[in-house]
Design goal:
Two copies of one chain form a homodimer.
Chain A lengths: L10 H25 L4 H4 L10 H20 L13 H16 L13 E6 L2 E6 H26 L6 H5 L2
Antiparallel strand pairs in A: 1-2
């Protein structure tokens, strides 16, 4: 019997998509090397001058995953400095966040659909219940940045398909 | 008291994001006109030669929204032909799908987390329980295509921000 819970709609989604993001970055790095260009060029690639580059997409996606789990559990999210400058460092960050997400147990999120969650933004605050925060803010942000990472890679000629994005 | 349910994690997400997609397309059309180019040029825009153009991103996003609601409720999804060639027609499609999604009531999805869902793909079938289908297939696909639509517009100079994508 499949059980609907706050944990079931958060942790497995983050973990699967972070693993897929990790695989996509591995493929991108390998393909760059095979084509004879520096993989780090991809890390600075963007879809528009006023959009964030690949490295930031990965950093922000991971932040939403660990942020969501922590907030739903009533913890303070572990801070990770945004200092990555290589594929290897981004892979470490993703693995670290997968470990963090996997560390949260089902019971830590029981009742979190009603937990009040406050997100501080420059000059304003967003207040949500836990369910609306997860569904209406954290998950949308998370998918936004993972998809944008995929789009940056595809736009730069990396050979990926939606299967890489979606399927584990 | 916020209630976690299959309906709560599907319909409101689809509706909010479809409304945001509609607003983003309106802004794109208006900005194209203001800049003096044919908005229809955006409909054929892609991020890579082997990625789908904007029109298809909108069609597929809407298909996943109505498909998910129907499958979770045990219905056959209403077919919509992929014939749109203008912003106005895409707006009609989005509105039609919003109406379909809004037509599903909470009680129609009760227990759907355990419903067996089969997705037929060319040469294969995917079998899921309803929760895994929604979380691991339909929602990921939906966000993928809405985000890609956003990315195509941004890449083509349309002035949008993540607030347009995420906030209603």
């Amino acid at each position: 019997m499949t059980k609907l819970s706050m944990h079931a709609i958060s942790a497995p989604v983050f973990v699967r998509m972070l693993k897929n993001l990790s695989s996509m970055l591995s493929k991108a790095e390998q393909q760059a090397k095979a084509k004879g260009y520096d993989p780090a060029i991809l890390l600075g690639a963007r879809l528009a001058p006023d959009m964030l580059p690949l490295t930031r997409q990965v950093q922000i996606a991971t932040d939403h995953a660990k942020g969501a789990m922590a907030r739903l559990a009533g913890h303070t999210a572990e801070a990770i400095e945004d200092t990555e400058t290589s594929f290897a460092q981004l892979q470490s960050r993703i693995q670290k966040v997968i470990n963090i997400v996997e560390g949260y147990k089902e019971e830590q999120l029981v009742g979190s659909e009603s937990r009040e969650i406050t997100i501080k933004l420059p000059g304003t605050e967003l207040k949500f219940d836990g369910l609306t925060y997860l569904n209406g803010f954290a998950m949308g942000n998370f998918y936004f940045h993972v998809t944008t990472a995929y789009a940056i890679l595809r736009h730069n000629g990396v050979d990926l398909g939606k299967r890489d994005f979606l399927m584990s």
